[in-house]
Amino acid sequence: MNKLKLLFLVLFILPLALFAQNKITGVVKSDAGELLPGVTIIVEGTTQGTTTNFNGEYSITAPADGNLMFSFIGYLSQTVPVNGQSAINVVLQQDIEELEQVVVIGYGTVKKSDLTGSVTSVKADELNPGANASVEQALQGRVAGVQISQKSNEPGGGLSISIRGSGSIQAGNEPLYVIDGVIVNNGSVAGTGGVGFTGNQNPRNPLNSLNPSDIASLEVLKDASATAIYGSRGSNGVVIITTKKGKEGKLRVGYDGYYGIQQVYKPLDVLTAQEYKDVLNSIIDLGGGDELQRIDQIEGGGTDWQDLIYRTARTQNHNITMSGGSNNLTYFTSLNYFEQEGLVKGSAIDRYNMRFNLAYDESKKLRAGVSFNGSYIHDDFASTGLGINENGGAIYTAVNYDPVIPSYNEDGSYRKSDFFVGDNPLAILDGEDATAETFRFFGNTYLEYFIMPELSAQVKLGGDVQDVRRDIFIQPFTVSGAGTGGIASIQTGRKDYVSAEGTINYTKEFEQSRLNALLGTTYEYFQTKTFAGDGRGYALPDLGINAIGSGDPLLNNLGSGRTQAKFISYLTRVNYSLMDKYLITASIRADGSSRFGENNKFGYFPSAAIAWKMHNENFMADAGWLSELKPRFSIGSTGNATIGNELTYQTFSAGSQVPFGDAYYSTITPSRIANPDLTWEKAVQIDVGFDFGILENRLTGSFDYFNKETTDLLVYIPQPLNTGFSGQVQNMGGVRNQGFELSLSWDIIRSNDLYWNLAGNLSTLKNEVLNIGDRGDIIRGGLSQIPDFSIITPGEALDSYYGYIVDGIWQEGDDFSVTNDNVQPGDLKFRDLNDDKTINSEDRTIIGKPIPDFTWGLTSNLQFKNFSLDIVMQGVQGIDKLNANLANSMFPNNFRQNRIAEPLLNRWTPSNPSNKYPSFVNPLASGGTTALINTITVEDASYIRLQSVRLGYDVPVENISVFNKLAIYVLAQNLFTVTNYQGTDPGANASGSNTAAIDFNAYPLPRTYMVGLNVEF
């Protein structure tokens, strides 16, 4: 019996011992000794877990023979056996891979911790989500010091990017783009308009040919230390794009796509038919207009023309990727289709992309690779351009067309206004057709051979070929085509770019230092060929563009052109690190270009930078809360070579035909004066900044002050008429850009179940013209019926607005003896700056600036278990914009045109003595047509925009063997914009300039809703 009792006790107690639970407490610290709150602790093999409190403490119950798993974002996970212990303290090691993040710079890479220049790196998952047709849209609001404005919201419309301000008057202000180490040929090929075509002068975006989904990382090089390696083309900053590469392992197939709809966010608020009738008749009653222009009735309830030309449009994107590889050979390929219908009927873009990346890497022996991108883009353009007077395209006419008439006559023909020169908006959309097809191929191949482990030589060949054809046909039922039986135009263009590059790279690790040296040379060749032909007078207009030669041969017009340029460069750079504390970078590049005069073929662009990793000093050992502190300083010189070709040479153009005997002969005449001294614009930039990390890099950021002075500006200088030429491009003048930049990223919460990061950037900018030589003030910017509106003068920002100050409205009982102008109560009261009692061009002054005081961006990334919520906001403050639509409403070209509602509904009348808006009875009582530019029409265009909100869910796939990843999301873009600006979009700029900003017939901003899917097999 005793033996049986003993056996029973053993069998009963042993399982209890095996499954005994221990209560375990402890503290979790970092390898730097910092207490870590929010660390996740899980009992291995179970769902039982807990997290550390604010003091890094935890308490958990676990089997005596079990294991505890500790994990924390930014640190290496660790598994600790319990072994019956009741107290377990753990030290987590920081993930070195995060610290050793590699950043791409010009002609090489560097560890992020070793950067000496001002470089911002944006990874693929940090780019803006949504319907992004181009790279710039995906970058908007993400980088301090980078301002992005939309030239047109039309699908595929161009964007304007400015990095640390604009410093050029006539040369380009856009950054240099480098994709996988090869400079891409930025810029459009064929013309953006057509003979007789009333629309779309907004250039297409040349980076549309790159699929944003193919981007692995994007680096923005801002200071001269980073950009001087690109010499004559680095003064506007450099954007380096690295596409995705394959990874070792089995074949991975992925699909990501979305489908969405887009709606007009904010159409212009114009007068309704009834308001239009009441307002215009009231103005006639007060003495304005003409009795013949009185509105007697509203036919058929009137027409909302904007509603007729706009639509709810779809957008979709489908992307398939395949990647994989062996130990040495990896590959990545993608196929992409992107479609975006335009909000204006008839406009759209379809893009087909293919990318192939292949890389061979036998470490420290041989590296080789191929990167190739091919694209086909089909554009449908709506006639929406800036136009001339009343022929401004569908948007212009829809805003201004008579709303008291129907859209069609009873016989189905388009109703034409008796008072408006422009065509019926629907006739324009149906009868003015423009399409474009663009084939583009760019890529490179490289071979790097290691002569010894520390020394390698690389050869890289790259190219970029664009082929464009644009067809335009204007039907004879339109106003433009009625007199000629239709107008047809074909424009073609081809743009070739070839580059060859050879570099030698030396990298050596010493006992307490590290050296990297680069030596190289490059050769680049550019060529553009264009052809344009148009015809009129078609007996069979249905043949349209396909029978352009069937028109009247006397009305045909042909043209062609060819340009070319060559660059040859020599470059060297040294990076030196001592004791992983003191960093030095120095570089110099020599550029020679055929674009410049015989006396200035070469330019030299040096730079130097130093940085100090203070956090690695012994005296910083007690500052455990400080993860990183790296002050840095840089200075360097860069250039700007984005000018036309052959400007240094005397050129000739076709002259008139002259009679000789019984025949006429064609002639050529000189068209430009040679300038052998023409050279690069030069920019010298100083940058002082520091990078920092706090609390094991929970809070990281950077701060910079920069001062960039650009000299030898390329300016068109008028010449005496007796020379036979109107002017010549010369080097003179200077511009300064200076400001501060701050970037922050804060992991507010980071645990396995909950993670919240808040990141933001803020940058200020002061742009100032230093001098423009003997040229005198430059007044420019005339557009259609809008007169010159900007001025370039020392002491002010580039293209500051130049107009009149409005001091209110003349009221009954005012002392009218102070003016000699024919004004009356209800007219605008302009400030008489020279006290001569007459308002004229002498009373114009600077009334605003198109360059913001500061820009900012804010992103929030919240993850809870499998859910994620991403929010992106951005804003621009202290910027003005010429609202030309408002100017056109206040000073109408035609009395019987519609207007923006707010000024007209709140106009001055004897019973409503407004002191803001005039009576509109005598709009040009003083100042003439230049009165259009004033402190009412130049508006504050500051804004805050909720750019995107994305809610996603990662479906658990642990038990679904076919999937490696399965995620779904919904997304909304441009949900709201907070602004006092009266136009459709305070961020739009129809001028296409980085400086002069004007809103005229702007393509409406789309509000987008979409649903997306991301799958990996």
Give a short summary of the structure.
Residues 561-811 form the TonB-dependent receptor-like beta-barrel domain. The chain is mainly beta.
> Which blocks of ≥5 consecutive residues have pLDDT under 50?
7-19, 188-203, 385-390
Helix content: under 10%
Query: How many strand units?
Result: 54
The name CATH uses for the topology of the domain at 100-267 and 310-639 is: Maltoporin, Chain A
Q: What's the N-to-C terminus distance?
A: 64 Å
> CATH top level of the domain at 100-267 and 310-639?
Mainly Beta
CATH architecture of the domain at 100-267 and 310-639: Beta Barrel
| Whole-angstrom Rg | 33 Å
User: What's the main sheet like?
Assistant: 22 strands, antiparallel, barrel
Taken as a percent bin, the fraction of beta residues is over 45%
Shape: globular
Mean pLDDT: 86
Q: Please, how many helices? A: 10
Structural class, please? Answer: mainly beta
Task: Tell me about this structure.
The protein is mostly beta strands and 1017 residues long. Among the domains are: 20-97, Carboxypeptidase-like, regulatory domain (Immunoglobulin-like); 100-267 and 310-639, Maltoporin, Chain A, CATH 2.40.170. It contains ten helices and 54 strands. The strands form twelve sheets. The chain has a 22-stranded antiparallel β-barrel. Strands 10-15-16-13-14 form a five-stranded mixed beta sheet. The longest helix has 17 residues, at 2-18. It is globular. Residues 1-20 form the signal peptide. Belongs to the TonB-dependent receptor family. Residues 112-238 form the TonB-dependent receptor plug domain.
